[in-house]
Automatic annotation (TrEMBL):
<feature type="domain" description="Acyl-CoA dehydrogenase/oxidase C-terminal">
    <location>
        <begin position="247"/>
        <end position="396"/>
    </location>
</feature>
<feature type="domain" description="Acyl-CoA oxidase/dehydrogenase middle">
    <location>
        <begin position="140"/>
        <end position="235"/>
    </location>
</feature>
<dbReference type="InterPro" id="IPR046373">
    <property type="entry name" value="Acyl-CoA_Oxase/DH_mid-dom_sf"/>
</dbReference>
<comment type="similarity">
    <text>Belongs to the acyl-CoA dehydrogenase family.</text>
</comment>
<protein>
    <recommendedName>
        <fullName>Medium-chain specific acyl-CoA dehydrogenase, mitochondrial</fullName>
    </recommendedName>
</protein>
<dbReference type="InterPro" id="IPR037069">
    <property type="entry name" value="AcylCoA_DH/ox_N_sf"/>
</dbReference>
<dbReference type="InterPro" id="IPR036250">
    <property type="entry name" value="AcylCo_DH-like_C"/>
</dbReference>
<dbReference type="InterPro" id="IPR009100">
    <property type="entry name" value="AcylCoA_DH/oxidase_NM_dom_sf"/>
</dbReference>
<dbReference type="InterPro" id="IPR013786">
    <property type="entry name" value="AcylCoA_DH/ox_N"/>
</dbReference>
<dbReference type="Pfam" id="PF00441">
    <property type="entry name" value="Acyl-CoA_dh_1"/>
</dbReference>
<dbReference type="InterPro" id="IPR050741">
    <property type="entry name" value="Acyl-CoA_dehydrogenase"/>
</dbReference>
<keyword id="KW-0560">Oxidoreductase</keyword>
<keyword id="KW-0274">FAD</keyword>
<dbReference type="InterPro" id="IPR006089">
    <property type="entry name" value="Acyl-CoA_DH_CS"/>
</dbReference>
<feature type="domain" description="Acyl-CoA dehydrogenase/oxidase N-terminal">
    <location>
        <begin position="21"/>
        <end position="135"/>
    </location>
</feature>
<keyword id="KW-0285">Flavoprotein</keyword>
<dbReference type="Pfam" id="PF02770">
    <property type="entry name" value="Acyl-CoA_dh_M"/>
</dbReference>
Length: 399
């Protein structure tokens, strides 16, 4: 019988009955079938699955109704409110499964294309969006470049219209999911050479096309191999693959930025819950001076601070989700949530390492991996400094 860890936050459930049912079923999937798959193939946080195994996970998650659940109902999803979405995602990441990012298809599945459905042509729906939603195709989002990160409009990748094709040249950097993606939603400049104004346009790009290669020979500090560069050299992209009108790429990319910022928070907090649980359990079993270190006040205070800060971050996340569900823009609030949750999650992981002592700095310990991964979240998807800029701007403009 599969043993599912008791949630750290076990008060009244904040979401809907449907969300509670999904969480129960997805926990069975993560701790049962997927746990067995990970053991059979030697998959853990340091050793990822290959493309064939991931596709097996995607298809199985789709068959169980998990893979596309975040999509609009018109696309076969459940049309979940944001509050239910964050609660389900938090539970998935708190499971500790190395397959957690793949249950929703977060790196390469439906979340990458759901917001594009309103802009996509029938051809694009058939060729890209529907296959992704049905776990038949993997897709990544390619915006970042060496000189374009926080300044999203500074992309140097160029797309020049030549008849019924665009000729695309450039290099995308740090693209999550690219090593196992079949296609990309790629942003490129379509401004005339030497033009003063920026014009960024979005395209569907088949990564198997001539003139495209994915370079994934590097790993991030978390030891993951799910990130790579996309290099385009005279790649011919059909005009039919352009998403929306020229110059509307950033609007498409940033149209759901507030929601997307919030949706990173449940991953961070789910992972931080793992770090807190590991620290608590280790403190109870580790003995020094004839008793468990959990009996020392210094350790108790660290655990208390970790739990309190985590509860505060979680309250901010859930409150912001409710504000979005109520129809608010919540631009400042989503940036506050991303800022506070990422900083808090890293502090929790840092204290967890401290409680583990020498064991906490040994590679192979989950707490050491969580420390590295949660450090990355302070940079990923908008740095803490960018979030502060947004918060300050909203505050100053409200006077």
């Amino acid at each position: 019988m599969t043993t599912i860890p008791k949630p750290l936050f076990d008060g009244p459930f904040e979401g809907s009955a449907r969300a509670a049912d999904i969480i129960a079923r997805v926990q069975d999937f993560l701790h049962g079938e997927l746990a067995e798959l990970a053991r059979a193939h030697g998959i853990d946080h340091e050793h990822g699955a290959d493309r064939a195994l991931l596709q097996q996970v995607w298809r199985r998650a789709h068959a169980l109704g998990f893979y596309g659940m975040t999509l609009p109902e018109a696309m076969g999803g459940l049309g979940l409110p944001v509050l239910d979405h964050v609660l389900i995602k938090e539970a998935i990441y708190a499971s500790g499964s190395p397959f957690a990012p793949h249950v929703f298809g977060e790196l390469s599945g439906p979340p990458r294309v759901g917001a594009l459905a309103r802009q996509a042509t029938p051809y694009q729906m058939q060729q890209f969006i529907v296959p992704v939603a049905q776990a038949e195709m993997a897709i990544c989002f390619a915006l970042t470049e060496a000189e374009a990160g926080s300044d999203a409009g500074a992309v140097q990748t160029r797309a020049v219209l030549q008849g019924e094709h665009y000729l695309v040249n450039g290099r995308k950097r740090f693209i999550s999911g690219s090593p196992f993606a079949d296609a990309a939603v790629l942003l490129a400049s379509t401004a005339a050479e030497g033009a003063a104004e920026r014009e960024v346009t979005a395209f569907f790009v088949d990564l198997r096309s001539e003139g495209v290669r994915v370079e994934s020979g590097y790993k991030t500090m978390a030891g993951q191999s799910s990130t790579g560069d996309i290099v385009l050299t005279d790649c011919r992209v059909p005009l039919a693959n352009r998403i929306g009108e020229p110059g509307r790429g950033l609007a498409l990319a940033l149209g759901r930025i507030s929601v997307n910022r919030l949706l990173h928070c449940p991953a961070m907090l789910g992972l931080a819950q793992l770090a807190l649980r590991d620290a608590r359990d280790y403190a109870q079993q580790r003995r020094q001076f004839g008793r468990s270190i959990a009996q020392f006040q210094a350790i108790q205070h660290m655990l208390a601070e970790m739990a309190t800060e985590l509860a505060a971050a979680r309250a901010l996340m859930l409150g912001t989700a409710r504000a979005l569900d109520a129809g608010g823009a919540a631009r400042a609030e989503t940036s506050m949530a991303k800022l506070f949750c990422s900083e808090t999650a890293f502090r929790v992981a840092d204290r967890a390492v401290q409680i583990h002592g020498g064991e906490g700095i040994v590679q192979g310990r989950r707490v050491e991996f969580l420390f590295r991964l949660l450090r990355m979240y302070r940079v990923l998807t908008g740095t803490s400094e960018i979030q502060k800029n947004t918060i300050a701007k909203e505050l100053l403009e409200s006077t």
